[in-house]
Amino acid sequence: MKLRGLYAITPEHTERAMLRRQVAQALEGGIAMLQYRRKGAQDVDEARELAELCRRSGVPFIVNDDLALALACGADGLHLGREDGDIAAARMKLGDKLLGVSCYDSLDAARAAVAAGADYIAFGSVFASPTKPGAVRAPLALLGNAKRRLSIPVVAIGGITLDNAPGLIAAGADGVAVISALFDADDVGIAARRFSALFTARELATRHL
């Protein structure tokens, strides 16, 4: 798969109508992918609405944790964490849909995920995260190491802002997964465009090296 840019993850407690508006703004701002994540409260009707918004924009819509919901709402894929089920089994049920896997701070876990059929992997928390304050921290060097050793996109997650994202992109991240710095922004669309511009700037700088 191709993944390059801002990977938006929906916030937990935003009211449904507001979330729909914010997702629409994020899509207009150029996000590369959207993950639907409401721990314990994911709703098939809401998921279908957001999936349709993403479909209109040509942006992959991923469901967090819940394989049954991903299949029921017509999602483009599923993202699994450490305790969210067997990767290989999910791969079989998803068919050709996308499968992402959180690998925290472990390159060995990433290798195993690739072998089991993951399409992309995520490392983090790379910085202190307001969403998961107790999360294990992944070193910056892990991104570059994984990029050199793995054949699939590498995503950084956890505490990412417009200020620290450039360092992650330079280190090798194909995508940066963001919740608070995007959905808590005064203007979600503008924040999305600013994150997306960081990838464009990096690509232009690389061409001139």
Could you describe the 3D structure shown?
There is one protein chain. This protein is an alpha/beta fold and 209 residues long. The protein has a single domain, classed as Alpha-Beta Barrel (TIM Barrel), CATH 3.20.20.70. It has 9 helices and 8 strands. The chain has helices at 16-28, 44-57, 67-72, 87-94, 107-116, 140-149, 165-171, 180-183, 188-207; strands at residues 5-9, 33-36, 61-64, 77-80, 98-104, 120-123, 154-157, 175-178. It has an 8-stranded parallel β-barrel, surrounded by 6 helices. Helix 7 links the parallel strand 7 and strand 8 (175-178). Helix 1 runs parallel beside helix 2 (44-57). The chain is globular. The protein starts with a strand and ends with a helix. The model has no long low-confidence stretch (mean pLDDT 94).
Key traits:
single chain, 209 residues, alpha/beta, 8-stranded parallel beta barrel, 9 helices, 8 strands
Strand content: 15-25%
The helix-and-strand class reads: alpha/beta
Low-confidence stretches: none
Helix content: 40-55%
CATH class division: Alpha Beta
Radius of gyration, whole Å? 16 Å
User: How many DSSP helices?
Assistant: 9
Second rung of CATH, namely the architecture: Alpha-Beta Barrel
CATH topology: TIM Barrel
- Domain count: the total is 1
Task: Give, in order, the helices and strands.
Answer: EHEHEHEHEHEHEHEHH
Main β-sheet, spatial strand arrangement: 1-2-3-4-5-6-7-8
| Main sheet properties | 8 strands, parallel, barrel
- What value does the average pLDDT take? 94
Overall body shape: globular
Concise overview:
The chain is an alpha/beta fold.
